[in-house]
Design a protein that fits this description.
single chain, alpha/beta
């Protein structure tokens, strides 16, 4: 018995050293624990895209989301593009070996103003989401200057207009240039959406000069 216990302890220690994110995802007991673990993975993926943004200037939404999906795919997370959930959702994320099952749906948009962003929100909430999934994900690829100001204006207008049955003002997200919104869904529950800003602005004049 002790030998088996020692073997399990050694395996957990090895996973903790080599893939701590996987262990956090696997052992999440609540949705809040899962979101905390997922945010750590998401932060790393978004930051990597921002550091390499010069390489992605010619990519469209599908291309950018392919890069993001690849960076999110770690042991413990299966990430698919254009999977079917009442339509072809941009990101279909499944936490492997979790009980209860944890699925996250995501839409991704290159920022092009308030209306375009809300269009993505309507797709995510109105078409793809069943209500069984964990917090939804709306990725905002910002290729314009002043991501701070653009996200602030976006939040302000959402707080005023309350799109998609938004129940209260948006709230800060743990990630920079990101926020949370809550919406009453047809399933009869209030569902949260993470709006995640990714700063892909490139100053081409500065790039040419260098």
């Amino acid at each position: 018995m002790s030998t088996n216990t020692d073997s399990v302890a050694a395996l957990v220690e090895r996973i903790q050293k080599k893939a701590p994110e996987y262990l956090d995802l696997l052992t999440a007991e609540t949705d809040a624990d899962f979101e905390q673990a997922f945010n750590a993975v998401l932060a790393t993926a978004v930051s990597w895209m921002e550091r390499n943004k010069k390489s992605y200037q010619t990519l469209d939404e599908v291309g950018l989301t392919s890069v993001l999906a690849a960076r999110l795919s770690i042991p413990g997370l299966t990430v698919s593009q254009e999977s079917h959930s009442n339509g072809h959702v941009d990101l279909f994320i499944v936490a492997d070996h979790c009980v209860p099952e944890r699925i996250k749906l995501g839409e991704a948009k290159i920022y092009d103003g308030y209306s375009y962003h809300i269009g993505g929100l309507k797709q995510l909430l109105g078409r793809y989401t069943t209500g069984r999934e964990t917090r939804g994900l709306l990725i905002v690829y910002v290729q314009k200057k002043d991501i701070t100001g653009l996200i602030k204006k976006l939040r302000g207008r959402m707080n005023t207009e309350r799109p998609c049955s938004q129940g209260r003002d948006t709230a800060d997200h743990v990630l920079k240039w990101s926020f949370l919104s809550e919406h009453f869904h047809s399933c009869g529950e209030n569902l949260e959406i993470s709006h995640i800003g990714c700063n892909l602005y490139v100053d081409n004049d500065a790039t040419t000069a260098s």
